[in-house]
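Researcher: Let's do a round of design. I'm pasting the structure tokens now; please hold your answer until I've finished.
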């Protein structure tokens, strides 16, 4: 692939100019970063429609498990944001996530271990689940 670049006069000129001139290098680097960013932003704005009718139709045709997961995620987010507003320590959530555990809603036992693979039924108070990756 580099053979295509090495033989090109334009490529050699570009390399020579960026080596000799720091402002040209900064300008070229800016163009290489800004132009794709502007194009990407434009494509995202063009393809992202905020059509209320479409959203209502998609929500109406959603599967029950999708609706349930949406509610669960909304509850978890509300719980987490509430903890942040109350300025509670949330490091235990991070530690639990690293271990593959999910925190429970029981305020006295925040982190519970993952149930053993051999034990098919969890204990009555155990709500921890292994995260699927």
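Researcher: That's everything. Go ahead.
Model: Designed sequence:
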């Amino acid at each position: 692939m580099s053979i295509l670049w090495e033989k090109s006069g334009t490529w050699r000129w570009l390399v020579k100019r960026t080596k000799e001139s720091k402002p040209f290098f900064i300008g070229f680097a800016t163009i290489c970063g800004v132009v794709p960013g502007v194009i990407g932003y434009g494509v995202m704005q063009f393809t992202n429609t905020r059509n209320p009718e479409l959203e209502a139709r998609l929500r109406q045709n959603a599967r029950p498990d999708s609706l349930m997961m949406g509610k669960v995620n909304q509850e978890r987010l509300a719980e987490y944001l509430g903890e942040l507003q109350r300025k509670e320590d949330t490091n235990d959530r991070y530690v639990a996530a690293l271990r593959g555990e999910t925190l429970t809603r029981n305020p006295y036992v925040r982190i519970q271990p993952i149930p053993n693979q051999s034990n098919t039924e969890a204990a009555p108070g155990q709500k921890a689940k292994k995260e699927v990756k």
